[in-house]
Specification:
two-stranded antiparallel sheet
Length: about 240
């Protein structure tokens, strides 16, 4: 097929195309730059609805929804600070993920290591409370996350009584043989931090008396700490 030359195009049509192109360019340059906006984090469907929608594949659904929740703060054209998220809705999502897969570790990891890091005490406490509540449902599997929550309560919130509550819960409820000694010993040193030296001394002395500390280095370390506590506990009485 023979191509027609540009000169064969009617002048009026050519001018019309040029004018339309110029108008398009002019219109585009006058438009404001698009402003990215964060999609609202809604409350999740209940676990039963999700099971039905996924043809009863709750573990797969929990994994995929965990990834979706983690990526929520990075949407096209916008990065949302964790502190801007609605933590009541966030907690509902985390609860739902664990309802779908009670053996999942990732929701607790997100709560204690990700969402609890925001510089907002109210939001931090929501995540720590979630971790504590879910720990009580499965202490042997979830004690690590509550131990981390105790450290956040101590070092970030400077709330030693709250840290002691979490540490005591691990000591009382997490009885699995594979749980390391340091996890059950946390209350002793938190008592010392609070100033309850006598209580810490009694508890550490009782622990050493059981003979359950078989590692020589650990036993030596705890014995020295006990002696330090005995010395510290005796000082006020000597002063009087």
């Amino acid at each position: 097929m023979q191509e027609r030359s540009l000169q064969a195009v009617p002048r009026t049509l050519f001018l019309g195309i040029v004018l339309l192109l110029a108008l398009q360019i002019s219109w585009r340059t006058q438009q404001a730059a698009p402003i990215a906006s964060a999609e609202s984090l809604t409350f999740p469907p209940n676990a039963t609805s999700i099971r039905l929608a996924t043809l009863d594949e709750p573990i797969t659904a929990s994994g995929l929804l965990s990834l979706r929740l983690q990526a929520f703060d990075n949407q096209p054209g916008v990065s949302i600070p964790f502190a801007a998220l609605d933590y009541a809705r966030l907690t509902a999502w985390l609860d739902t993920l664990l309802a779908l897969d009670p053996n999942a570790q990732y929701p607790l990891l997100m709560a204690s290591h990700l969402y609890a890091q925001v510089p907002d005490p109210i939001r931090q406490r929501k995540m720590l409370d979630f971790t504590y509540r879910q720990f009580l449902a499965a202490p042997a599997q979830r004690w690590r996350f509550l131990a981390h929550a105790a450290l956040i309560a101590k070092h970030r919130l400077h709330d030693l009584p709250l840290a002691l509550t979490y540490a005591r819960a691990i000591q009382v409820h997490a009885k699995d043989a594979n749980i390391p000694h340091w996890a059950s010993q946390m209350p002793i040193f938190l008592l010392e931090d609070i100033g309850e030296i006598e209580a810490a001394k009694i508890e550490l002395g009782a622990l050493l008396a059981t003979g359950s500390i078989t590692d020589p280095q650990e036993n030596h370390f705890l014995t020295e700490r006990y002696q330090d506590m005995v010395a510290a506990a005796s000082k006020p009485r000597q002063a009087r």
